[in-house]
């Protein structure tokens, strides 16, 4: 199974994602902000990162750009619970343009997420 990094600032969402992925046999590292997530990715590496778009300290867009620069083989799945479209600007589509392999609006369906992870890895 894969080593997966989850970056999500909503504690309940973070715990649900972590439990779902661990139950499927993945090794999961989790944090609640983009800055810490970038540091973890740089220090520990991961095969896949699940990145919330709107987080404190460093947003998901900046994290995706950093991940793709420092670790181009790391797959990224972007998620967003609100504000994903602002003034006709779709942040999830922008995340996809930056290299996210898939994007989900919250709430994320656990089975769909697991199927996507299996497909991209």
Automatic annotation (TrEMBL):
Keywords tagged on the record: Phosphoprotein
Residue positions, PTM 4-aspartylphosphate: 52
Domain Response regulatory: 3-121
GO biological process: phosphorelay signal transduction system
Domain of life: Bacteria
Signal peptide: none
PROSITE patterns reported for this sequence: RESPONSE_REGULATORY
Protein name, per record: Response regulatory domain-containing protein
């Amino acid at each position: 199974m894969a080593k997966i990094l989850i970056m999500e600032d909503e504690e309940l969402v973070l715990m649900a994602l972590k439990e779902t992925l661990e139950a499927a046999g993945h090794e999961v590292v989790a944090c609640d902000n983009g800055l810490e997530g970038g540091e973890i990715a740089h220090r520990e590496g991961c095969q896949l990162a699940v990145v919330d778009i709107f987080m404190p300290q460093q947003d998901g867009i900046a994290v995706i750009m950093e991940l793709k620069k420092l670790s181009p083989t790391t797959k990224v799945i972007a998620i967003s619970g609100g504000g994903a479209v602002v003034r006709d600007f779709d942040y999830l589509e922008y995340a996809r343009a930056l290299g996210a392999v898939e994007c989900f609006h919250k709430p994320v369906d656990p089975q769909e997420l697991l199927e996507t992870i299996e497909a991209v890895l």
